[in-house]
Amino acid sequence: MSNKSILLFGYGNHGKFIAKGLVDDGFEVSIIESNETFYTQAIEDGFEQTLKVDVTKDEDLEALHPELYTQLVCVMDNEHLNVFLTLSLRSLFKESYILAISDSMHTTKKLQMAGANKVIDMYEVSANKIHNILNRPVATQLLEEFVTHKNGIGFREYIIPNESFLHGLMTDDIDLSKYGVLLVGMIDEELGNHFSFITAGINHKLDSGDTIVCIGEAKKLDSFESLIGK
Amino acid sequence: MNKLLLSIALFLYSSNRYKNFKKFVHNVLTDANNPYKKYVDITIIFLIITSVFILIYEVKHSVPEWLDTYDIYFVSLVFSIEYLLRLWVHNDISEPIVKEYKESLFLQRDFLPMGVLKEGLREKVRYMFTPSALIDLLAIFPAYRPLRVLRIFVLFRVLKLLRYTKSINQFTEVLASKRFELLTLLFLLFFVVMTAGIAIYVMEEHTNPHINSLFDALYWALVTISTVGYGDISPVTTEGRTISILVIISGIAMISFATSVIVSAFSEKLSELKENRIIEQVNKSKSFLLVCGYGQMTKMFFRHYGGEYNNYIILESLLERMDQARKDGYEAIHEDASRYETLNKFNTDHCDITILCLTSNDIENIYITLNAKSISKSIKVIARANDSTMLSKFKHAGADHVIMPNKVANSMIHTAITQPTMYKAIHAILTGKSVARIDEIRAYECKAIVGKSIESLAFKQSKLLFMGVQRSGKFMFNPLHSEIIQAEDILLVMGRKISLDYFKSLYKEKG
């Protein structure tokens, strides 16, 4: 299995769109569905790696070898089934990274208790968005465009290679704007796996192995990527 | 004569200044949502109160002359002006005359303005005989000094307060809704008082020293039936006392009847009164939110951000949900936002209104959007859509923003899978909870930055990351450092809230 393989449970309301987006981004997606209609739909949409499995049976789940995938994504349309599936997967595969979607705030809690690593609450994210639109309409719209790379500007993360010119520099001293990119934040390996924003006011020392997140135009990001490798 | 009339009418009709002024006066006097009406109201109420105070003070003390002059001339003058203005703005005469003239030209018949003029004047007279206009007129009278008794007309000034106090208006409205019951009761009362009064008059006129006339007898009957019972007149014969017993019993019955009628009228109208109060309250604020529907989406929104919004109303057409919203501690009213009357209650002319259509039904949301936009284009609408096929329809209906919970969640999942490091960052930015938030600085709000170059602004000092400028709808990412900020620009920055506030304060002081 490649590094970017996803096991997607559910090809309903959410699964359909997520699957397409992931394939477009070059991910290898395997779809598991228990509903006949959705299963046929997935096959019709050209997803060859689609299996019809009864997700309530542990032995069937084990046969899928979820441990081989980088992430397990539970987005079944049936809320109850989704929670049960999350719980089963967690109890069977302690190490797996499970991402689940929740259609209501009550389910969010249940999914978290069932052991999902990350739960995305549909209403919560939408409520956030409404709040943002009300308070900073322009910033919200732009940010969304950055995330979806709509206007050519987007975020990208880099791991600083050995012998990079960035190695050993302090974040306060570097100005990347001449390369057409801006440093947004970083994960400092020395300080644990915690993402910190450049504007938090802490002066970090960049080391090889650290992850930095930059924003910029796609082309500039590409050329910057080759630049830091030198 | 007709020519003169026509030229005056034409002049007034075509003069925009006259029209605007008339409209302005009309709004100031009658439109509760007009921001200036408040001041007119306060002035009039002040005049009324001082006038009544002078009346009371005058009973035992001599009033200084200036106060008297104030009361007689100034207050009355203001009231007369107010009266005349109200009469003036009540209807328009020039327009029908011009219309009549145009019609006569069209039909090539004689121009006869007298008919419409009379009709217009008749309308004014009709207005003069409405209760509120009569009270206004009577309130001017106390200025006429020679007749001392006219002083009591100052009390009509108190009645004038009715116009300015909403609660009394509501009280009369409530009573008016039970007009039939109350009239029946009044008629019954009249009947019993008359019968009992005549009876006691016939029985006791010769024996009772206190009953000398029919008026005394009727007075006794009313005092008795109302259970007041002064006791200055009381029956002395057995027949008279028998009548008393009957009158007292019917009195108790009538009072309990009257009480129950009024109480039920109020309990029926109570929720409506309450809702009107909430609406009035919010109408006074400069900008507010109308949230349609109290479902999952609204609950989530208020759970997270409820504290940050002070001026809002939740409109919910289902009674149970409305009750739930109230139980949860939110301002909610039981109204259907898709009805024209509902949205029209809000002060669409003077407030910035943002409507959140958050019901789970797309058709309902589109309908509310259209409804809002048909009332005023300036109402901002943020709508929720469940089905992606509805998106174009929402745009067509005029929604300013459309939120699709499915799509938002899907894109979040997508980001969480494809850019796991970034997801945290983006999530933090989106929720605005962490140290980093992407925010906007509007140049017109910090005037001091206009005309300055980007490199001269204190982004570094306030620990903000400058990302770009939104200028006339286009975003310039990481522009040249020598770029000059223009008045319409919106600056996109990332940083902590305190940094942002600091930055804004830096440039506010200098401005």
Keyword list:
heterodimer; A: 230 residues; alpha/beta; Rossmann fold; Alpha-Beta Plaits; six-stranded parallel beta sheet; four-stranded antiparallel beta sheet; 38% helix; B: alpha/beta; Helix Hairpins; 20 helices; 10% strand; extended
Structure, described:
In chain A, 38% of the residues lie in helices and 22% in strands. Chain A is of the alpha/beta class. Chain A has helices at 15-24, 36-44, 58-63, 79-92, 105-114, 122-135, 137-148, 218-229; strands spanning 5-9, 28-33, 50-52, 71-74, 98-102, 118-121, 153-159, 181-187, 195-197, 211-217. In chain A, helix 4 links the parallel strand 4 (71-74) and strand 5 (98-102). The two termini of chain A are 31 Å apart. Chain A is globular. Chain A contains 8 helices and 10 strands. Chain A folds into 2 domains: 5-126, 3-Layer(aba) Sandwich (Rossmann fold); 146-229, Alpha-Beta Plaits, CATH 3.30.70. In chain A, helix 4 runs parallel beside helix 5 (105-114) and helix 6 (122-135) packs across helix 7. By secondary structure, chain B is an alpha/beta fold. Chain B has 4 domains: 2-164, no CATH class; 179-269, Helix Hairpins (Orthogonal Bundle); 286-408, 3-Layer(aba) Sandwich (Rossmann fold); 436-510, Alpha-Beta Plaits, CATH 3.30.70.1450. Chain B is built from 20 helices and 10 strands. The radius of gyration of chain B is 34 Å and the shape is extended. The mean pLDDT of chain B is 84. Classes of the chains: A alpha/beta (230), B alpha/beta (511). At the A-B interface, helix 1, strand 6, helix 6, helix 7 and strand 7 of A face helix 13, helix 18, helix 19, strand 7 and strand 8 of B.
